[in-house]
Task: structure prediction
Amino acid sequence: MMTRILCYGDSNTWGFRPDSPFTRFPKDTRWTGVLDTLLGEQHEIIEEGLNGRTTVWDDPFGDHKNGMMYLPPCLESHAELDLVIIMLGTNDLKAHFDLTAADAAQGVKALVAKVRSSGAGPGGSAPNVLAVAPPPLGKLSLLAGVYGDAPEKSKDLGHQIGLIAEFINCPFMDAGSIVTSSDIDGVHWEADQHTLFAGAVAERIKSIFTG
Result:
């Protein structure tokens, strides 16, 4: 039986290249594509990465970036889903939102709840959910004005999302323990980090389905 996995994230799920802004890595380089290869033909990986996506916040500079607004139709259109991987929170820390890592974690909590109440799993059940904390930001260059003091705040994302995941009994991964944001722009991942992350996610997925 095919296992269907939705990867719901932002620019690092889209595959944004730090060395070539607004272009993306090819499918076989993006972590979702590498994951597809690692898991094999009995798994279907569905990419849903959007540059600038937040957890639950409306962005005045991008009226379709609110992750909560797009999630319900996304779940419905891709049902039936066995697992939804949510990796969001970095964009919540942009300067104009004036939010904390704890605020971003609450956004992740709301998204997990939405998935669990969606009926988008097999036979109208709830899909499994894996909450992933994005890695801390690195040294910012062109995006320094956009993110402000977000690099310092982002160091707390893993801790805050981990606390929420434990509280709501949701499987969790801290991407910051696996990958490092590129020194080129401080936000996005280089190709080797996509590969590293995909390997770790593959193992985590196996543990979710095998107990």
Observations:
- The beta strands are 3-9, 43-49, 83-87, 128-133, 172-174.
